[in-house]
Amino acid sequence: MIPLSWYLLFAAALFGIGLYGALARRNAVAILMGIELMLNAVNLNLLAFWRYLAPAQMNGQVFAAVLLAVAAAETAVGLSLVISIYRLRKTVLPEEMDLMRG
Amino acid sequence: MTLEQILFLVFALIGLGLALASVTMRNLVRSAFALIGCLFAVAALFAMLDASLFVVAQVAVYVGAIATLIVLVVMLTRLEQQERIPQTHRYWPAAALLAAVIVAGVAWGLWQYGFFDQTPPALPAADPIVELGRALVDPEKFLIPFEAVSVLLLSALIGAVLVAGGANKKERTE
User: Which of B72, B103, B149 sits opposite A13 (nearest CB)?
Assistant: First the structure.
């Protein structure tokens, strides 16, 4: 059988890659993609802990389902913000979104 | 090494490779396709965890969402901007360092905590999907969080439409 740590290591690596993508990319859409990767890693962790530590209880699966819905809501709102900013400033680069800089 | 472990390693390597590709590639459309592949690999790992509902949800929700993302990328980013300007800003080594430190920290913590040889207990006799469905509509268990999530989704939907569509109301009426 697969040890639990394999899942956790994979999820940690996926989270790290997503974090790098979210922090280092210049494009707002690419940043959202990095955040998707991070949320996916967290979901994998939740399901792995559910399966290995408490498969008889549904807490882990419910938590993962809630996370899935929250991730979908986050993507929808994030993309609509990107569209809105593009309409105003004709850019998707966060460094050019300096409307509120003093 | 059992077949299951080999399958896990194959899907994990595919997933990590595509994730790396998706955060490093210059062309954002390719990057989005790599992300789709990565999410499929994660769905395969969900299947290995006996979470069948989440395999379907992953493919339906994420791949649907990412397909929309690709369309947006095509619409919003000018091609010459993708090819000439660097895709990362000048602080990217700090981001890479932070990510590497977090991964190394988690690996060290796993080593300390001794999760390395934990194997899964047998699944209970009841089907997890049936149990999950019952738990979601049981007032004693998760009915309130379930309803809260549906309210959250609805408000996010309305908010998204308002934010994305509200900006050009003036243009439309003119």
Answer: B103
